[in-house]
Amino acid sequence: MHPLGPESGGEAFHSGGRQFATQNDPDWLTMAAWVESLKNSASAPRAPKVRIYITNSAGNTVDVVDPATNRVVQTIQGIELPHGVVFSPDGSRVYISNESESVLDIVDGDSGRILEKVPLSGHPNNLAITKDGRRILVGIREGTGALDVIDAATAKRTKSIPVSGPVHNVYVTPDGKYAVSGSIDAKTITIVDLQSEQKVWDLNLGTGVRPMAFDENPDGSTNRIFAQLSGFNGFAVVSFEKHAEVQRIKLPDQPAAMGSRKAEWAHRRTALEFRRTASPSG
Length: 282
What we know:
- The protein is mostly beta strands.
- The protein has 2 domains: 6-43, no CATH class; 52-225, YVTN repeat-like/Quinoprotein amine dehydrogenase (Methylamine Dehydrogenase, Chain H).
- The protein has helices at residues 26-43, 261-278; strands at residues 52-56, 61-66, 71-77, 82-87, 93-98, 103-108, 114-119, 124-129, 135-140, 146-151, 156-162, 169-172, 178-183, 188-193, 198-204, 209-216, 222-229, 234-239, 244-250.
- Strands 4-5-6-7 form a 4-stranded antiparallel sheet, with no helix packed on it. It has a 4-stranded antiparallel sheet with strand order 8-9-10-11, with no helix packed on it.
- A hairpin with a 4-residue loop joins β2 (61-66) and β3 (71-77).
- The longest helix is centred in the N-terminal third of the chain and has 18 residues, at 26-43.
- The protein starts with 25 loop residues before the first helix and ends with a helix.
């Protein structure tokens, strides 16, 4: 930015200013290329950090583990009864539901410092974040249940969407168009349109709704919901298009490969009987 020589308008107090007559000097060009490479390196996006967040819901901390070393690299203090955790798309913000204070804690991803405590409409459980990162959806377990909508830009609660029962889990569908809440108490899943922020349908599964997973249609829309159920060793399969349960999958009560010693010996006796019976000698 500063002239390099007197003939170009430079002056004696510009260190090194007399070294190069022009910017075409080969040595100057070499140094310029080196500086440019450092600038490009500094502006290159950083590789994302992989971290595991463990909410200590019997205490007031969240431990952050580096899976490359299996060591705790950060401990977030001051959140009594932390429950759910979600992250901004760039990882700069961590959102944690705080059951003790009924707030959403917004935490700086680098320092672990609590930046904001956003008051909620009631006692929270789990939470989710929209695909664009603009809204955090907090499941409210208290009362008749709701999804509190938090604006990520302003850190303010903008709405509480009524749902069918106190919320334990909440998810955003793979296409980003809907939120799905599950209620253990009301035994119901509720689907909310994220454009209108209104409930569009619900389904009672007859028992408490636990964690859920989703699969997609070829066009990216939601095909099915797989809902784990309380008191049932398996899960329900729900058609998103039909708004109905289409199958209930029961898992084995006792997997043969991991059975008790009694089951293992019973299996060995059966195998021994088969070999004895099939033997040519009788």
